[in-house]
TrEMBL record:
Organism phylogeny: Bacteria, Bacillati, Actinomycetota, Coriobacteriia, Coriobacteriales
Domain Bacterial type II secretion system protein E: 75-333
One GO molecular-function entry: ATP hydrolysis activity
PANTHER family cross-referenced by the UniProt entry: TWITCHING MOTILITY PROTEIN PILT, TYPE IV PILUS RETRACTATION ATPASE PILT
Protein name: Conjugal transfer protein/MT3759
Pfam family of the protein (one): T2SSE
InterPro entries (alphabetical): P-loop_NTPase, T2SS/T4SS_dom, T4SS_GSP_E_ATPase
Gene3D superfamilies for this protein: 3.30.450.380, P-loop containing nucleotide triphosphate hydrolases
Similarity-based family: Belongs to the GSP E family.
Length: 429
């Protein structure tokens, strides 16, 4: 990161190089050619005295790279994007850039010159996807495009002034290619051996289940690890807004939703993908995240024989998943009564896995619940195992996963046995 003196020099050199490149019309050259040309120009300008400001070799090299990053890449964000420990970047103001490391948010010394500097980075990110973020369209959700980079496909949310009251805002949730297995996640502290066995059984046993939790709790990480267990003789459809579910499998198709273009055309929704996927005869349908009316079409897919389907939704806990799904299905406008929708949900989904990120930054499965049908006008659920916190000092949490004594239903046991799952001790705990 640059000191105030280095930032001032970088902005001066950047303007000079940009002006000279424009004059020479070198922006039409190949990327490699113009980058080297700009580098040579910047080196020349750095050697010039400006009010007695001289830099040593190391600092000059740092400023030089910052100039190139601002000209052709994403400026001050480059350092954070390539840092493998950083999982999220939030720009609240030019001088207020925060990052998530190990599940905990931290301030940084990274800063932009001003709001125009931030806006230039936003324009470069959203423009690469054919979108815009300006006074006419002040909010944009897209992905960061950098083919070959480990953060290619990261989720981006940009909010520009005047919707952003004080400053342009940018949030980047970095994509990380997760190769973690369930064993890896267990060893990281996400769950224990008993939960590992439950997850394996309901996945192999072709149970339909929900993974619920808040933003950044590890839902997709867990879903990726589970998908690695899908038998290789089953055809799998992966449907997502942002392509994050990636695993090796011989018979998988991956479809991605897309927003409408500037003319309002070309939109493909998750709901469109779910409907279209049924024509491809998948055995399982995996929806990266249900947010709206596509929930109804996923229920129809499950009820028509696509067993072993999985999705994630935003909810605080297992029981909070039911009103969340009710709201989504109502958005489909099918005119169903709330009780009928919940009954439909209870007959389609079998289990709910709840996950959260603690104040210590650790992501944990907090509950696994079985959906047991209806009780009056509500979905009856039985918690099989839950995380009980024993102690915390606000920075560290200690606890254990405790079976509740709830027994899994004979119907689910029978279905899992048919898929080759042998009797497990936790079935009768």
């Amino acid at each position: 990161m640059l000191s105030e003196q280095e930032l001032a020099i970088e902005r001066r050199v950047l303007k000079l190089v940009r002006d000279e490149l424009a004059q020479q019309a070198l922006y039409e050259e190949a990327q490699g050619d113009r980058t080297q040309t700009a580098r040579d120009m910047a080196q020349d300008y750095l050697q010039e005295d400006e009010d007695g400001q001289y830099l040593n070799y190391t600092d000059a090299a740092k400023v030089l790279e910052a100039v190139i990053d601002d000209l052709f890449l994403l400026g001050p964000l480059e350092e954070l994007l390539w840092d493998e420990d950083v999982s999220e970047i939030d720009i609240n103001a030019p001088d207020n850039v925060r990052v998530e490391v190990g599940g905990v948010m931290h301030g940084t010394r990274i800063r932009f010159e001003d709001d125009d500097h931030v806006k230039a980075v936003i324009d470069r990110i959203v423009g690469a996807t054919g979108n815009r973020c300006d006074e006419g369209k002040t909010m944009c959700n897209c992905v960061l495009v950098r083919p070959g980079a480990p953060f290619d496909g990261s989720r981006v949310n940009a909010t520009c002034m005047p919707t952003a009251v004080d400053h342009h805002e940018l949030c980047i949730r970095k994509f990380k290619q997760s190769k973690a297995t369930l064993q890896d996640l267990m060893e990281s502290g996400m769950f224990d051996q008993r939960i590992l066995e439950i997850l394996e059984a309901i996945l192999v046993g072709r149970m339909n289940f929900l993974i619920v939790g808040g933003t950044g709790t590890g839902k997709t990480t867990l879903l990726n690890a589970l998908c690695r267990l899908i038998p290789r003789d089953q055809r799998v459809g992966i449907l997502e807004d942002t392509p994050e579910i990636r695993f090796e499998h011989p018979d998988v198709f991956r479809n991605q939703a897309r927003p409408a273009n500037a003319e309002g055309e070309g939109e493909v929704t998750i709901r469109d993908l779910v409907i279209n996927s049924l024509r491809k005869r998948p055995d399982r349908i995996i929806v990266g995240e249900c947010r709206g009316p596509e929930a109804f079409d996923m229920l129809r897919a499950i009820s028509s024989g696509h067993l072993g389907s999985i999705t994630t939704i935003h909810a605080n806990d297992a029981r909070g998943a039911m009103p969340a799904l009710l709201n989504m299905v109502q958005q489909a406008g099918m005119g169903m009564e709330a009780k009928d929708i919940l009954d439909y949900v209870s007959r389609c989904f079998d289990f709910v896995v709840a996950i959260e990120r603690g104040t210590d930054g650790q992501r944990r499965i907090t509950e696994i619940a079985e959906i047991q049908g209806m009780e009056g006008d509500k979905v009856r659920m039985g918690t099989l195992v839950k995380f009980e916190q024993d102690w915390t000092d606000g920075l560290q949490i200690e606890g254990t996963w405790v079976p509740t004594g709830e027994r899994i239903s004979p119907e689910h046991i029978s279905r899992m046995r048919k898929c080759g799952v042998t009797d497990e001790d936790w079935w009768y705990m």
